[in-house]
Amino acid sequence: MTHVVVDPITRIEGHLRIEAEVEGGRVRDAWSSAPMFRGIELVLQGRDPRDAWAFTQRICGVCTTVHAIASIRAVEAAIGAVPPPNARLLRNLVMATHCVQDHVIHFYHLHALDWVDLVSALSADPARAATLAQSISDWPLSSPKYFAGVRARLRALAESKQLGPFANAYWGHPAYRLPPEANLMAVAHYLEALDWQREFIRVHAILGGKNPHLQSFLVGGMATPVDPDRAASLNAGSIAAMRKLVASAREFVSKVYLPDLLAVAAAYLDWAGHGAGVGNYLVYGEYPEADGPNAPLYLPAGVIRGRDLSKVERPDPAKITEEVEHAWYAYPAGARALNPSEGVTRPVYSGPRPPYERLDTSAKYSWLKSPRYDGLPMEVGPLARVLVAYASRHEAVRKAVDGVLQRLKVGPEALFSTLGRTAARAVETLVLVDKMGEWVEALADAMARRDRRICDTARWDPASWPARASGAGFHEAPRGALGHWVRIEDRRIANYQCVVPTTWNAGPRDAAGHRGPYEEALVATPIADPARPLELLRTVHSFDPCLACGVHVVDARGRALGEALET
Amino acid sequence: MREGRQGLLAELERRGVTRREFIRFCGAMAAALGLPGGASAQIAGALRTAPKPTLVWLEFQDCAGNTESFLRASRPTVANLILDTISVDYHETIMAAPGTQAEEALARVVAESRGQYLAVVEGSIPLADGGVYCCIAGRTALDIAKRVCGGAAATIAVGTCATHGGIPGAAPNPTGAVGVGEAVPGLRNLINLTACPMNVENLTALIVYYLTFKQWPPLDAERRPLFAHGKLLHDACERRAHFNAGEFAEAWGDEGHCNGYCLFKMGCKGPVTFYNCPTIRWNEGTSWPVQCGHGCIGCAEPRFWDRMTPFYGHLPLTPGIGADIDRVGLAATGLVAAGFAVHGVTSYVKRAAERELPAEKSVPPPDRKGNGP
Prior knowledge:
The complex is a heterodimer.
Chain A (H helix, E strand, L loop, with lengths): L1 E5 L10 E7 L2 E8 L6 H5 L7 H6 L8 H14 L5 H27 L6 H4 L4 H11 L7 H16 L20 H21 L1 H7 L8 E2 L2 E2 L13 H32 L13 E3 L2 E3 L8 E3 L2 E3 L15 E4 L5 E2 L6 E2 L7 E2 L22 E4 L8 H10 L3 H14 L9 H31 L19 E10 L2 E10 L2 E8 L1 H6 L10 H6 L11 H9 L4 H4 L17
Antiparallel strand pairs in A: 1-2, 2-3, 4-5, 6-9, 7-8, 10-12, 10-14, 11-13, 15-16, 16-17
Helix pairs in contact in A: 4-8, 4-9, 4-13, 6-7, 6-8, 8-10, 10-13, 11-13, 12-13
Chain B lengths: L7 H7 L4 H14 L6 H11 L4 E6 L5 H7 L5 H9 L1 E5 L7 H14 L5 E5 L2 E2 L8 E2 L2 E2 H10 L3 E5 H6 L12 E2 L1 H4 L6 E4 L6 H14 L12 H4 L3 H4 L3 H5 L10 H4 L18 H4 L8 H4 L11 H4 L20 H14 L3 H10 L19
Parallel strand pairs in B: 1-2, 1-3, 3-7, 7-9
Antiparallel strand pairs in B: 4-8, 5-6
Helix pairs in contact in B: 2-3, 2-10, 3-10
């Protein structure tokens, strides 16, 4: 038996460590650990609740909209602010833009090199690469000359002996299976996607002033004025720019991303049999189509247990708990699992003193807690959303999923896998990029009606708030179900808590010994060479880890500030 | 072929960048750096022969926001190639190799290019409890920073977390987070490129300057480059004329807000922030926060999470303000000029932010006595 440690897991956001036992060419057991902690929720204590979005936004620069959205929703729920229709449309566009851009970056820049051998692309025949590219898509950049140019760039890099970020990787590993021409095509699209993401994200600059960390969120609405008659507001020019950017995104997603996904998946279909994970899925739902609480959502909420697509439950926040059996925190005596509305977090590090080689995984081993729903570990993210929508007979999702399954000649059970997770992300991107155009046109219609409302200003002044209030805000981030809980006393934050997608997915074992979703998905993964565990990366990356998000201190319940570090 | 030719221009030409694009880029960089006209020729001359430098990018208590900003490098497009042409030998978020192989790549740079590579640091360094709040490959952030930055030709701290502790270092600073300069005192050639996150256009300009002149541009007392932090944001703001005229947005979405009036009364911190955000802007020059309708939050200033909050309270530039906003423009200009004259930017901001804010407009800052590093 070999003990494998991969730290740092690269091509993710943040710091993640995986330890695994490999026996007979397969993972026998695995442990997921987060070795970084900041404590942003403690920092929030006592502050103006209208500022909280900017603080929580900095939980993550990759997920640069998601904590801001969850935060303003939580505060709005607490104080009774209702954002007007324009704010809903602006937020839907901001969220969907982020999700689309983030999924493309994940596929090409964080995940692709698990399937694509860069060095093999050096020996590709450009003419054959062109034939291949033209057989799967009518994307215009597909001539032999174009691919010869990409190959020349790659060769120049290789000859310079300075491979930069591509140095020392697992090139030539036996688990790489694509022909050189497919590898060259993928590398070309890696570079194109780098340009495309930069261009498309200008939607965020238009709606939020900048990306990353856009700056137009407000409790009660958005700060971007909407007025077709003013140069200093969103106007016809902004609509035209967004139409163009959304149209080019549709083009890129349908003609590059989806065909590439299908080509890669067809070569690695056995990965529809690996990485299934816990088989329970949690989705809060997203993209409100009307205003006020309980508005209908474009992507539906739901809970699926044990891979049973015949039943979708309505999620109940009261069933959410967090456990710290294997996390570096202490709970009050007798408490095992706490709901976020009454959560307690005291960081108490009990791991090895650095520098260290191994964690003691029989004890506490991570800065992530273990969130559970009704006592069960849950997978969250694009696969969960696509499964819930599919099982709920969502028309656009069903059409996109069935299209992918038919092309790959597999049934829906193939979705419960590493490959299914990666495919679900592409399906969701396609569905969202189709929907975005509708929101742009709805905004144009509102402008034409001279509807200039962007914020519920009646609740802006803290004097209009009750002395005590509490609320929760939910959001479907690119990586999954996100919840923020806030309690406000005397117009300041008394308690702030987040339960985050990567905490759900990457969290450690619970008191009952259930593995977290990463850990469970890694069990039985084939490993050809324990010194170069490429296959392990495939499954971990299929979740799109984001560790800065995952690690957080919840609970700021009226304790002395210094108490957090009491040991 | 131009085999045998060394330097950045040769490398760029191999990658399809024309000489003309290259010269235009050098001109743009000279302008961004605030250098006189002749400097672009000097930059071009230096870059033609500069060897391809090695860069390692360390991430500690970070959110990857500066990495995301780095990926948006865009203006001019050749800037992207300049960055591409720097050999980025270690960067957790983008590098292909994981674990042992990644750490080997870093160790190789430190051992083989000692005193020659550039280190970029993103994220703060936690000093509390022996550094257990940030470990990579079993080693603490402090241990890694000492080893890697200590052997670098120069260190660029990017973003307010790496420069001054940022959000992890905001009160009550649960993990004892500090910036690189405080964590590793005496580091040679440290420069602080602040803001949350830093703007990649400034990083590009900074690296070009370094390659050209083999030294950093002039710095302020916080070791920030003056080309990016030498001028008051308020002075370059497109809404400044409205401030002078006493025209203010009073509520989100009101007539003044739609008209692009000054956001001072909505909490804008532009009058106390030294940063070139309005001139370089974001995402291919598309916009910046004030243009889109939200006030500046002062993110380029040290410890802004404590000093610039509450974000929606307007600046306490004159005591008892609120009744006669039209007089504020004059008062603010005078005070800021005084602050700038002595270049006591930090202490000025601190003094200003520590004063009580008008109660009717905002929540008073929380009591945080006796905490923070």
